[in-house]
Design brief:
21% helix
Length: 61
Amino acid sequence: MRTLGRLWMILLAFGSVPGIEAETHRFHPEVGYQTYKVREPVLRVRPGDIAETSTLFSPLF
């Protein structure tokens, strides 16, 4: 039983578990806020996922 647990941990560590695939998320912001207020997340990712995004440019930054 301990061997099976170790094997599972190794598979999880290397990400070779069948059925679990990384996703690529492309996020293009349309509105920017100049505050440090707590807001709802605009994107949720899982470990191993790829997030492609850019920042908004403003004369104030």
